[in-house]
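Encode chain A's predicted structure.
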Amino acid sequence: MSQLPQTPPAAEDGGAAPQFLGTRIRGLRKRRGMTLAELAAQSELTAGYISQLERNLSYPSIPALFNIARSLGVTIQWFFASEASTAPEDQGYVVRRNSRLSVHYEDGIVDQLLTPQPNRQLEILHSRFPPGTYSQQSYSHEGEEAGYILSGCFELWVGERHFQLGEGDSFSFPSQEPHRYGNPGEVDAVVIWVITPPTF
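Encoded structure for chain A:
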């Protein structure tokens, strides 16, 4: 198995996620010596779905991209690391508003990374959920996470527990518990999310 490079190759164009994300998934899969079927089995997805992502025909869901990254031995951030430009004096310490790494998921959910690279022991995300958008299924992983609702309404399921949250509310839970979430409201929900260890 070839060794993983420190940073991903530069995007072929400067567009949004669909123009380069699939290319990077396919490239890393091939460097790992994995077939579509093998990656699908490890990430609990179908080969057809991953093929669509690799051909830049659709956005992934949040759990799908997380599972693909984990199966390939990287964090989500690896696929996007060269997309944001950072001034040399800021590197490792500051993230400017116009230099955030962004991930666009299906249904319009957008995560922006607020913590600088390289990752340390935690990460902070600015997450925007359009009205009626939900993570498609529960998922779990190592670590802990917490969040603060900046605006809008937010629903959260952790294990068998269900919470209705609004502006100013906050939450925290062990990431090993299956969890999912979404926006039941009529306006965007904006959440500041803290995760350790980093998964983005």
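The mean pLDDT is 85.
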